[in-house]
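Deliverable D5.2: sample structural annotation.
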Amino acid sequence: MTEHPDNTYEAAGVDIGAGEEAVQRIKASVRSTFRPEVIGDIGGFGGLFQFPQHRFTHPVLVSSTDGVGTKAVVAQRAGVFESIGVDLVAMCVDDIACAGAEPLFFLDYIAVGKLDPDHIEQLVAGVAKGCREAGCALIGGEMAEHPGSMEAGEFDLVGFAVGVAERDRILDGATITAGDALIGLPSPNLRSNGYSLARRVFFDVAGRSLHDPAWDGAHHSLAEELLSPSVIYSPAIAALLRVVDVRAVAHITGGGIPGNLNRVLTDSLDAVVDHGSWEPPKVFTEIQRLGQVRDEEMAKVFNMGIGMVAVVPADEVYAALDVLRTAGHRAVQIGTVEPGHGVVRYA
């Protein structure tokens, strides 16, 4: 049979050599996240992690998976790829922190239209940075080139985290009582949620460019604002759990405070949030102004400046604030728990 010189994997759009180069480039970043429990090295068919069972009596594994959503589109347009790796880790480890879990290890998946080792190196460097902040090990991942289904420069970034919690210390909201306090941990930016609406307002409605100032008088660009990385809260939540009788924790992502804080409430309790207890960062007011977005829509799409909410007893508010502020977060009390029907209300 006569062979055709163009019928190769590379001619079909998959560059194995670029993939091998990318793997070599990311090895140092990946190794920088390793904990003592990691066995082996990058390049195996599966990541190996020796479970630290001696530290737990009745350990329960807790896992979460997520992606960076259409924030990836902004990164692609700006040609800036490192920061959203931090977002990916934050979305996953802060979810499992809501159960009171310590993140142990992380794996990522990167799909691209055409594999560029420079882009992969930046993406994984961001994931590794997030893992170091969270204290978990990046023990594996996958890169996939998808010619025909994705254009060159397009990519998607997803991952998952696995953590552990003591069975009798899992947070599920069952111990929340009327009178408990709501403690908000500030988010200075959008984190990784609401970007479809943010892009529509800034680019389609307002006609802004990524190179424009974020808003009138801003000293940074719109790209810098939209690509600022998410805060990772899990280490602060772990510190809080060691000191305070935390009743529940809610990660404020898509759905905002109303769509996430309600997930930890029983049917007989409401969370009453004081709107005036914090000031939303400028990016939120700018989106609302430019897009003429209703208050209710803003509240259900964006975190509005609160990335995590912890529910604590009223007599432990000051202790909670002290722990969280020591951990680097300007935490504030944003409301209380009252008898009700399992919903979030605004005062």
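Annotation notes: The chain has two domains: 16-169, 181-346. The first helix runs from residue 16 to 31.
The annotation will be released with the project's public dataset once the embargo ends.
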